[in-house]
Amino acid sequence: MPEKMLELNDITMQFGGVVAVNNLSMYIGKGEIVALIGPNGAGKTTAFNCVTGVYKPSNGQVKYQGQVIVSNHPAGKMKALYAGENRDRYPHVVDPTPDKITRMGIARTFQNIRLFKTQTVFENVLIATHLHRTSNPISAAFRLNWREEQKMRELSLEMLDFVGLSAMKDELATSLPYGKQRRLEIARALATRPKLLLLDEPAAGMNPQETADLAQFIVEIKERFNLTIFLIEHHMDLVMDISERIYVIDFGKLIAHGEPHEVQDNPDVITAYLGVEDI
Amino acid sequence: MNTKKRGLVIGLILLALLFAGLYILENTISSSTMLITILKKGVIYALIAVSMNLLNGFTGLFSLGQAGFMLIGAYTYAILTIPVNMRGMIYQYYDGGIVQFALPAIIGILCAGLLAAFFAFLVGLPVLRLKSDYLAIATLGFAEIIRAIIQYEGLGPLTNGSNLLRRFPTFQSVLYPFAAAAICIGAILLLINSTYGRAFKAIRDDEVAAEAMGINLFFHKQLSFVVSSFFAGIGGALLAMYQGSIQVATFKSAMTYEILLIVVIGGMGSVTGSVIASFLFVASSEWWLRFLDNEMFIGTFQVPLLRSGFRMVVFSVIIMAVVLFYRRGIMGDKEFSLTRVRNRLLNRKAGRNA
Amino acid sequence: MNGFERLFPYLLAGVSVGGQYALIAIGYTMVYGILRLINFAHGDIFTVAGFFMVYMSATMPLVVSIPLTIILTVLLGFTVERVAYKPLREAPRMSIMISAIGVSYLLQNLMWYVTGGLAKQYPVLPWLSNSVTILSATTKIVTIVTPLLTVALVLLLLQLINHTKTGMAMRAVSRDFETAKLMGIKIDRVISISFIIGSFLAAAGSLLYFTNYPTVTPTVGAMPGLKAFVAAVFGGIGSIPGAVVGAFLIGISENLIKAFGYSTFSDAFTFALLIVILLVRPTGLFGEKTIDKV
């Protein structure tokens, strides 16, 4: 059994009266490609956000490479809503900001592409190299960090080259066609030198050919950069094609888990997706 | 790399030419002419506008506290540099005042910046975690609190309460503020073009994405806030030197609004824009539109509307027009670049020949 | 004179000015609730209302000048929204706030120009300006009328908001702008009505305020405006009862501070309150927390 890269234990996220994620437990082994799928609004992105520190989960724990990186338990009024041993299982509170998570080696892309709109393609990637800087503002301002700066630029160019966007490096990021913008976002995430990459619906809005290309691309970057990949998708083809294991959630709850063919034939999964067009 | 180095060299040469030009100008015309006044005041406003642009335009933090930090800078400078033999007279209501030494002007200016930066750091601790609209109102609030504190009679021995502070060292030559501003604006430009400046712009464009790329929001916002306020403090000190006397009432929030409007007119996110707009602003309000304030007669017919105060009305209307129709300002978010000018000229030529 | 008797006139003044702040604060909170805009120009509209009255009453009887002042102020608020805010509705948030600052700047400069820089005296309104003595404190009738009138107007407004179609539309827009638009609510109308109501209340507030403090200068509205805004933030921006509570709190507190001899800090109190509320509970007393979706 490969080392567990990421572990979610009883992750629950509640917004007021809505329980978006309900006691989700799952894990991803080192070097695996694991997908989390489910119909729209099932809570997938919310789960991502709990892992990356954007949301503080109402209850539960996230472990990365064996260490607890996020942990919380219900407090005050909320306590009454949580029954059972789950409630007191995670007494410590660990609440990092997203940048801390990224610096640990977990990078992500966004469902609704969030590029830096006023920046060029190259600059978008370059910004993602900032987190590994060792210079302070004064030495950076007076260019005493020129060696570091050069390395940052080289890394950015390398990433752009890898995703095939070198030619348009000085174009405004928003002038790129949609598919290329997604690649840019991935290049940007890669520039943070992650060990675990979280992809949020990377195939959204793509046609079958583009999706197939993307599938191949994801496998390539996994090999090339020695990554573990955690994928959220809605698009069945991509998921079935490259995932080693799949978790299915609906209404925030885990309803199935297994290898692609097992999940595909699972009656609960089919019911959950019934009526929803697979685009 | 080559074009950048060339740009830098050209920039430095232009700067040297500018200083030479100013030197000649100063020695040919009297120092009390409008032109010299505008150059002095304009360049000080330019520094302040650039410092505000760093915070608002480059980092996207809508802060309205500039006047407060300028005030701290001005007062720090004045308090530390008034010659000891003058203190008895100036602090007459407070037995000569608490501070009984005088530092050289340069040290005074530096302290002005440092103290403003320090207070910015303190203010930033609670305030920078707030959402943009709340940040605006909180910084405005702090500026007012600072004003109230400095005016407080109990601090009179230090600040002279609501009385004027004057007789501190001032500058004669227009080269002085230009040199100070050039150094400061240069430093700001260096920061903006460094990796930290890129982080600022990332925060401005999309905070959530910036954080996801490993940029610590609080640290970088504090950095921008503190640096911006440092230079606002220096600007305040220079303003004190320019005016010759200072009093708390000058640094009302109206001043922050004026600087903000200058930044908007020049283009949020453009240093050259802020510099240009500052000079335009000062020239218009002090000089070009002055005629609108004077009654004008054509024969025996008095031209309506023209009397004292009309200048500012016209001015405000122009500003509103810019805000509504030219939102990107004069320079948008671009800096002045000779290559761009050259390309545009070349394109025109190509168009004509085609 | 015992402690209470010494404090009483200050309390009265506090309740009175609190009511005036409340009338202004409602304008801020309504506009922010709907447009997410801090209408920096609102305080200046309040001041302009004062000047309208000064100039109107110099040439017309009060019976005409009072309603005319109110109508003109409402017209001004409506026009400002149409000209300076509506075109920027799709623009980034900062742009519209900068526009508000620009309008404030313009209005102040206009007032300086028209008045020639001289302070004007507000006309004496009969009956409101008459003196009355309560519990050995002598004050003007307006001090008693203000809080009563304020409460009456607020109750009326709450009726409008909670029990009319228009009010429901306003609540919908303030809850979710985009969806309300998609549901066919006439956004322009809702926004205009908010500004009209806000300006109306500001005009009413100015009638009361300047009867108490009859010197009118172009910058006289800046402080009350800012304080009213802080009141709105304190009460929960978007909540009308909250704004009213906040306004009375500020009015009473600042007068009590004066009673204890620290007048220089009475203005600063407002800002200290602002900082505290922003740190402890930014959504205010009755405000709602909103979660940003990522």
Q: Any overview of this molecule?
A:
The complex is a heterotrimer of chains A (279), B (354) and C (294). Chain A is an alpha/beta fold. In chain A, 34% of the residues lie in helices and 24% in strands. In chain A, strand 9 (245-250) and strand 10 (253-258) form a beta hairpin. Chain A is globular and about 60 Å long. Chain B is built from 15 helices and four strands. Chain B has helices spanning 2-28, 34-58, 66-81, 84-90, 105-127, 132-151, 156-159, 175-192, 195-205, 207-212, 217-243, 253-266, 271-286, 310-325, 338-353, and strands at 165-166, 245-246, 297-298, 301-302. Chain B is globular, with a radius of gyration of 22 Å. Chain B starts with a helix and ends with a helix. Helices cover 72% and strands 4% of the residues of chain C. Chain C has eleven helices and four strands. The mean pLDDT of chain C is 86. The chains are: A alpha/beta (279), B mainly alpha (354), C mainly alpha (294). Chains in contact: A-B, A-C, B-C. At the B-C interface, helix 6, helix 12 and helix 14 of B face helix 4, helix 9 and helix 11 of C.
SSE pattern of chain C, N- to C-terminal: HHHHEEEHHHHEHHH
Can you tell me the CATH topology of chain C?
Answer: ABC transporter involved in vitamin B12 uptake, BtuC
Q: What overall geometry of chain C do the principal axes of the alpha carbons give?
A: globular
In DSSP terms, counting alpha (H) and pi (I) runs of 4 or more, how many helices of chain C?
A: 11
Number of strands of chain C: 4
Total number of domains of chain C: 1
The gross shape of chain B turns out to be globular
Short description:
Chain A has helices spanning 44-51, 98-104, 121-127, 137-141, 146-163, 178-190, 208-225, 236-242, 260-265, 267-273; strands at residues 4-15, 18-29, 33-37, 59-64, 67-72, 106-108, 196-200, 228-233, 245-250, 253-258. With 279 residues, chain A is α/β, with parallel strands linked by helices. Chain A folds into two domains: 1-97 and 194-279, 3-Layer(aba) Sandwich (Rossmann fold); 115-193, no CATH class.
